Amino acid sequence: MTNTKIASLESFLTEMRTFLKHASHLSPCFIRFIKEESLTMEDARQEWTRLPESLNLSQREKLFTQAIEHLQTSTWKKAKGRFNDTELDVLAKWMKLETQALSIVVDRVECKTTKLPTTPASLRTQ
């Protein structure tokens, strides 16, 4: 893994720790919503395998990120009528971290193979 990718991963992990520290103060209903609506590795695998193999890795990663963000749109719509602005801000941060996490996994796995592991819910909060 390159120094840039390691720095990116370290930055991501710092953000995730901060997020989880603050998330413990949120309502159980909101935490449950995040757990239920979070994308799984299977979701990511399906999106990755739909991408044209003829594209280079950078193009595939960009399209993958767009596909994940598109999937998150329905979650956002469900949340808008249900949660307050503070919780929506947290959800927006969570979705950004979720996209980063799935992209890191795809990038890491792509270096080894063209298939993603199929461990569902591996990135969901505890």
Helix content: over 70%
User: Based on CA inertia axes, which overall geometry fits?
Assistant: globular
Can you give the mean pLDDT?
Answer: 79
Runs in which pLDDT lies below 50 for 5 or more consecutive residues are 113-126
Beta-strand percentage range: under 5%
The major beta sheet can be summarized as:
none
- What is the terminal-to-terminal distance? 28 Å
Structure description:
Helix content is 74%, strand content 0%. The protein has five helices and no strands. It has helices at residues 3-23, 28-37, 41-50, 57-80, 85-112. The longest helix has 28 residues, at 85-112. The chain starts with a helix and ends in a 14-residue tail after the last helix.
Write the layout of secondary structure elements.
Elements: H1 3-23, H2 28-37, H3 41-50, H4 57-80, H5 85-112
Helix pairs in contact: 1-5, 4-5
In short:
The chain has one domain.
Descriptive key words:
single chain, 126 residues, mainly alpha, disordered C terminus
